[in-house]
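Review form for a predicted model. The reviewer records the input and the model, then writes brief findings.
Reviewer: anonymous (R2)
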Amino acid sequence: MDSTESIESHRKLVKALANIFICKLARDAIDHDMSKLSSPEKEQYDKMIGEKGKHPYDSPEYNENIAVLGKALDHHYKHNSHHPEHFKDGISGMTLIDLVMMYIDWKASMLENPKGDMCRSIHLGAERFSMDSQLVAIFENTTEWFDKQ
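Model under review:
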């Protein structure tokens, strides 16, 4: 018996499903952080732009800046599902696409900050959002993969 037809059917289905995922991920990447460009977020980010990249993630200075963003940050979380704060149950409420966008957002933020450290950010995020060890390992593996690109 020849399995070619069955294998090709499976390959076609995987391709179709992957393309749905890729298209959604691409749309989310295009729309990433658009809420920061309108009120009430834009005004607060304009005030804070001089502080961007000056302080390591979770440092006292970084946390002070986050506190200043206040309602703008609450609005941002409410309108952007790549943040665990968007969901009442945090990361457990996210989709895989949200999770990928969260990782990429963390990676981009780390690259924009001369004091950034992705490994440290992953471990601080793991503590902050109660990430399990498997997800931490996946994020670390992804960081290693990115570093080789």
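Findings: The chain has one domain: 32-148.
Further findings: The chain has six helices and no strands.
Recommendation: see findings above.
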